[in-house]
């Protein structure tokens, strides 16, 4: 049997993924497993837009993580209601003949070739102004810039945020499913950010850690900042 692609293997619980994405667990759960909601004629079920890698163990893959990152960019950063993103993606997937199990939001081809069609469909559902269309196009471009793509056109690496996600940020922390089990590490190393932050929280200085790991102090600071941001979001 061919070896399973680590990018599409269940690796993250909802809690872990929400931690990395800075998205509430309940929100991420509805994106990936759907949710029931009451109506005047009884409960209905909203199907998920993301096809989860491991339904039995309820685990998300790296591609699922990237797809959820794309959804968060549209809904959190630009403020597009999720129901409108759903309509736009469903229309675009129908037009292009793809389905959720092909992971369109983790595909560079889908996001580049289909970008204008997606914006057009979103415009039909929420009557975007020209300025709004420009903002969504920029949001998708930022999304594309924080992902590295394989030769097959699918996501290989993701550079998560370490600061307020509306600001420009360095890409010095990376998540790669083939390195450190897909957890955040310093770029070009296997140094996990949670290990660095743990040592810092235990009382070691940035300078001592920089010397120990043979890395610049500002990179160590980014590793600590990455974990502090997520800890803050988790406790909020």
Secondary structure layout:
Elements: H1 14-21, H2 25-33, E1 35-37, E2 44-46, H3 62-77, H4 82-96, H5 108-113, H6 115-126, H7 130-145, E3 147-149, E4 155-158, E5 173-174, E6 185-186, H8 193-201, H9 206-213, H10 217-235
Antiparallel strand pairs: 1-2, 3-4, 5-6
Helix pairs in contact: 3-7, 4-6, 6-7, 8-10, 9-10
Can you walk through the features of this model?
By secondary structure, the chain is mostly helical. The protein has a domain at 159-236: Winged helix-like DNA-binding domain superfamily/Winged helix DNA-binding domain (Arc Repressor Mutant, subunit A), CATH 1.10.10. The protein has helices at residues 14-21, 25-33, 62-77, 82-96, 108-113, 115-126, 130-145, 193-201, 206-213, 217-235, and strands at 35-37, 44-46, 147-149, 155-158, 173-174, 185-186. A two-stranded antiparallel sheet has the order 1-2. Strands 3-4 form a two-stranded antiparallel ribbon. α8 (193-201) packs across α10 and α9 packs across α10. It is globular and about 60 Å long. The termini are far apart.
**Percent of residues in helices:** 40-55%
Strand percentage: 5-15%
| The CATH fourth-level homologous superfamily of the domain at 159-236 | Winged helix-like DNA-binding domain superfamily/Winged helix DNA-binding domain
Query: What separation lies between the terminal Cα atoms?
Result: 45 Å
| Overall geometry | globular
Q: Which structural class should the secondary elements be placed in?
A: mainly alpha
Q: For the report, how would you describe the main beta sheet?
A: 2 strands, antiparallel
What is the radius of gyration computed over CA atoms, rounded to a whole number of angstroms?
A: 19 Å
Mean pLDDT: 85
* Series of H and E elements: HHEEHHHHHEEEEHHH
Name of the top-level CATH class of the domain at 159-236: Mainly Alpha
| Total of helices | 10
Q: Give the name of the CATH architecture of the domain at 159-236.
A: Orthogonal Bundle
Total strand segments: 6
Unreliable spans: 126-130
CATH topology of the domain at 159-236: Arc Repressor Mutant, subunit A
Strand order of the largest sheet: 1-2
């Amino acid at each position: 049997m061919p070896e399973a692609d680590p990018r599409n293997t269940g690796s993250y619980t909802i809690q872990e993924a929400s931690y990395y994405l800075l998205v509430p667990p309940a929100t991420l759960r509805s994106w990936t497993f759907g949710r029931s909601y009451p109506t005047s004629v009884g409960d209905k079920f909203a199907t998920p837009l993301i096809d989860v890698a491991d339904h039995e163990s309820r685990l998300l893959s790296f591609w699922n993580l990237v797809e959820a990152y794309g959804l968060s960019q549209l809904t959190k950063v630009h403020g597009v209601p999720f129901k409108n993103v759903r309509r736009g993606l469903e229309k675009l997937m129908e037009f292009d003949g793809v389905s959720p199990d092909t992971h369109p939001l983790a595909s560079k081809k889908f996001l580049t070739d289909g970008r204008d069609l997606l914006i057009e469909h979103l415009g039909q559902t929420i009557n975007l102004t020209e300025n709004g269309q420009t903002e969504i196009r920029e949001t998708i471009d930022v999304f594309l810039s924080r992902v590295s793509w394989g030769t097959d056109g699918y996501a290989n690496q993701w550079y998560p945020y370490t600061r307020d996600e509306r600001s420009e940020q360095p890409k010095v922390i990376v998540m790669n499913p083939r390195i450190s089990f897909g957890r955040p590490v310093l770029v070009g190393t296997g140094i996990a950010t949670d290990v660095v932050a743990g040592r810092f929280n235990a009382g070691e200085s940035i300078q001592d850690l920089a010397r120990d790991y043979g890395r610049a102090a500002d990179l160590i600071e980014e590793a600590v900042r990455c974990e502090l941001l997520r800890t803050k979001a988790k406790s909020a």
